[in-house]
């Protein structure tokens, strides 16, 4: 029991510190966050307290109002903090990968599976909806990256559906704050074992490509590759 209490006591300061840090970061973007939270808490508590006086139970309704005021304040704070975080991340390289990393259980993500010289990038997420390729960068350039990656996926896992998403604010694109919701709305067509098998096949391909012996530097002109594989000694 003593060990559990000690662990709980140690965790509480960490949570409070995290909440304070989140509030501090949010307030830099959302200047009215303090006033909004105070208004939500006071109004919620005031409404229940007033109802309590009307029905003759101000103490009970006051306690209930206090609890609901805390809950309402926490919900509003969470939503505005999330909105502020997305606002800061919008347009930043790798923002989509950060969102995919926090999509939730049942999904595995691999950032930057394809990239060009202009730093346009494609990330890959695998879940019960299949494979989702998420691109961020110039809409015109990432289309070729997506097409090449989809073609590769269709060769490797032809029996798995492949979706593609372009992150942005233009027509036909998905805003960063709606990326997680968009992925979760895709129909679930794979079972848990099928998702695992798909990940294993993709991981095996990645290991194969990373372990492939490639010569360093450009190949000398006129040099031809030897026929057949290398013979063991």
Strand residue content: 5-15%
* Total of domains: 2
The percent of residues in helical segments reads 55-70%
Query: How many E strands?
Result: 4
The main sheet comes to: 4 strands, mixed
Secondary-structure element series: HHHHEEEHEHH
Radius of gyration: 26 Å
Query: What is the 3D form?
Result: elongated
Number of helices: 7
The largest sheet has its strands arranged as 1-2-3-4
Give the CA-CA distance, first to last residue: 63 Å
Average pLDDT, rounded to a whole number, is 78
Poorly predicted runs of 5 or more residues: 1-11, 207-233
Structural class comes to alpha+beta
Tell me the quaternary state. single chain
Quick summary of this structure?
This protein has about 230 residues and is an alpha+beta fold. Helices cover about 60% and strands about 10% of the residues. It has two domains: about 15-90, no CATH class; about 95-210, no CATH class.
Task: Explain what you see.
The chain is of the alpha+beta class and 233 residues long. It folds into 2 domains: 15-89, no CATH class; 95-211, no CATH class. It is built from 7 helices and 4 strands; from the N terminus they run ααααβββαβαα. The chain has a 4-stranded mixed beta sheet with strand order 1-2-3-4, with helices on both faces. Helix 1 (2-29) packs across helix 3 (58-89) and helix 2 packs antiparallel against helix 3.
